[in-house]
Amino acid sequence: MAANYWESTQRKNWQFSKEQLASMRQKLEDEDQGLVQSFGLPQLPHLNIFFNQQINRLGKRLGVRQQAMATAQVYIKRFYTKVEIRRTNPFLVITTALYLACKMEECPQHIRLMNQEARSLWTDMQLFQDPSKIGECEFWLISEMSSNLIVHQPYRTLTGLQSSLGLTQDEMALSWSIINDHYMTDLPLLYPPHTVALMAILLAIVFRPSQNTTQAGAAAAAAAQAAAAAAGGGAAAGAAMAQPGMAGINAVTAALAQAQARQPPTPGGGGAVVGPPGGQQQQQAGAADGPAGGVSASQSAALSKEKNERYSKMHRFGLWLAESNIDIEAIVDCTQELISFYDFQEQYNDKLTREQIVRFIKARGLDKG
Q1: How far apart are CA 95 and CA 247, in angstroms?
Q2: CATH superfamily of 154-209+316-337
Q3: Which tens digit of pLDDT belongs to each residue from 311-335?
Q4: Are both 17-151+349-364 and 154-209+316-337 of the same fold?
Q5: What's the rounded Cα separation, in Å, for the pair 182 and 336?
């Protein structure tokens, strides 16, 4: 059962609609409106970004694998659909979720080492003086999740489709980063892992940085990714996909529309994805992919070749979707959700988010256990 997503507890018990999620969260707040009114919280996307940052910081200290950190984030999302966040110490929940995830992903960490690293990382949380607090919280997490601890991740689908879709190493790396970023959204609770993986592949094919950008463009892209990493928020994929332009959006729309309509390739299309009339899409693609300044004939030829390869791959991906039983509308929704998240992420303020969380922890004495 564990190896089959369709028979898993993840699909049966932990896959919700947006309306169901909103209703569950509202119910938790309604149960104690006084507590909610006394302590304001950051917006949910900002909380998710903060949790992601803290898990990554703790995980890197311990050398934890990415899949275990991803599982920990899913545990936190599940737990907070059952328990109002203001009733907990999120730093303890983060530590415990990672401790439990490491067990389930077969890379266990000793509870004392986990507690020691958490105490060093969050020095203002006195409860980490006692490792037994993690053990107590572990039972709480397991209970609220009804012992449904096996998590199916999109990474397996991604690696399984690499050869079938002819993905390059750059596309694989960007897809992997996009999957990492999706844990900062509600997507793990809304869609199956294979849908998320296909969304990541689609975005990676369309928005991956050009291999033939000018040195200045490459340096700017590297600086953007370095800045994102320095901020601790991950989202390297968001930096790589910055300013995709209308050509990329048109390519995504065309590929999904073609697959959904089960249309065969257009005669004489030369592998190009169906787009706006009059070759508008390819003209936009040239404008979006081309360098800002003048280019030599060899550079222009290389750019043209890469553009054709990219649209040919989009066409191939669209045909693959058309022959499958994949829910195309779900991929569209996933794509919109993630692109919206990247826009929303620009408003994130780490200092303010942490202050709001620590405020209710201190006020309610949750920092002492």
Answers
A1: 43
A2: Cyclin-like (1.10.472.10)
A3: 678 878 888 888 888 888 999 999 9
A4: yes
A5: 12
